[in-house]
Amino acid sequence: MIYKTYELVCQLPSQAVSDRIASLLDREGVTYRAANLSLTSVSTPIVVLGIQPKLYSQANWVGINPFTAISGIEVRCESEGAASTKVIVRVNRRRAFLWVLYWVALSSFVASAMPEPGGAVVFLLVSCTAWFGIVRFLGGYLITKEIGVCLKDH
In terms of pTM, does the model score above 0.70? Predict the structure, then answer.
């Protein structure tokens, strides 16, 4: 559950795919190790305050760097013919789960100070928003979307 694997297929040679993804990781501040058409992150940007520039990105429509929400990423390129490549992306979402845990704990403290039905509603809304916003959206969809966009043939 902490690790999530995605598969993408693009119409580029494996080396070009690896180079484009490496350039994306460089732009987003991810330190990685490259070997045999695979990229493995060594560290991803850590952001605690909303004013840190590493949190923001111009590579997606949201304006947030999704690599700040995850603990690591592994990308492996497998050739599927002359000009087709299968890209396997494995995302370590441990940091995203920790952020969700933080928001759930915070909302439980706030909810305990509220009257009964309102507190339960606040707790459920914050918990669901944190789960879908951080784990599913930032730690999954937005990362694969950025990789997919960088692999489109320009």
Answer: yes
- What's phi and psi for 30, nearest 5 deg? -90, 130
List Cα–Cα distances, 124 to 87, 98, 112, 128, 131, in angstroms: 36, 17, 12, 6, 11
Structure tokens at 148: 């997919």
- pLDDT bin (cut points 50, 70, 90) of residue 47 is confident
Q: How far apart are CA 56 and CA 64, in angstroms?
A: 4
Domains parsed from the chain with CATH numbers: 3-151 (3.30.310.80)
Contacts of 52 (CB under 8 A, 6+ apart): none
Chain position carrying tokens 């559950």: 1
Contact assessment for residue 77 and residue 86, using Cβ atoms and an 8 Å cutoff:
yes
Alpha carbon distance 135, 95 (integer Å): 9
Give DSSP secondary structure letters for 58-88.
Answer: SSSSS-B-GGGS-SEEEEEEEE-SSS-EEEE
pLDDT tens for 6-22 read 999 998 888 999 999 99
